[in-house]
Design goal:
The protein is an alpha+beta fold and 68 residues long. It has two helices and four strands; from the N terminus they run ββαβαβ. It has a four-stranded antiparallel sheet, covered by helices on one side. A hairpin with a 2-residue loop joins strand 1 and strand 2. The termini are far apart.
Amino acid sequence: MGKYELLVDGRRRWKAASDADVREWLHDYREEHADDDPDAVHVQVRALSPWSWLTGGTLVPRERFLDA
């Protein structure tokens, strides 16, 4: 199971195994959506734990993964 799950408008799009994977995915997303969502405001990052199947995971601020 991945460490993070990335959602766009509440729909699961990808699982990431590390912080670096999330940063890379967000970088690619921001490039693809430079015209309509350059700050990735439609993206949610959910941290997964062994209990995520029960609790749903924990939302993590995406700013933690965005380039400064």
